């Protein structure tokens, strides 16, 4: 994936889901201003070329058999169940609409927070970004800025997988990914299903790019 290919997909995605690209961009600008010099992808360098466990928020998650030396990336909506299982995430990928308080606490304890800007979460960015005390990286699905990165991906879950690929993961195992049975949260079930179709499509592209290297548990 490169930016040119991504924007071809992004425009189709926005048309399908009636997403305002200008609002996405302005949210990225807001996040950039909130972060200032705090956001740098270099804080992720220590995770490069390692095994990754990417944990989404499907109705059922198999958290057995995770190796102690694996990097755990969690979509923040799955964070409570991951913590309840006695696991601690190295990286949390979040647009702050899942468990932002949990992300704040994990940030304080050393997790890297990859916080995502889009048109619907500007108020959440303003509320929570200033109190994220640990390492933080800003992300966008629109044009990258000097301190805001586009790792590709749309939902927190598939974006986490793209992030692992960006970090040259030696392997990527996906847990808690169910594209048929949605946990809708604050969204309608139908809109969540639409988003999951795009997530499934994007992960299929990533899997092809990796030569079929994604593993599902």
Outline of the structure:
With 217 residues, the chain is of the alpha/beta class.
Detailed description of the structure:
The radius of gyration is 16 Å and the shape is globular. With 217 residues, the protein is α/β, with parallel strands linked by helices. The model has no long low-confidence stretch (mean pLDDT 95). The protein has one domain (3-216). The chain has helices at residues 3-17, 21-35, 79-84, 100-108, 122-128, 156-166, 189-209; strands at 51-55, 71-75, 91-94, 112-117, 136-140, 148-149, 171-175, 214-216.
SSE diagram, text form:
Layout: H1 3-17, H2 21-35, E1 51-55, E2 71-75, H3 79-84, E3 91-94, H4 100-108, E4 112-117, H5 122-128, E5 136-140, E6 148-149, H6 156-166, E7 171-175, H7 189-209, E8 214-216
Parallel strand pairs: 1-2, 1-7, 2-3, 3-4, 4-5, 5-6, 7-8
Helix pairs in contact: 6-7
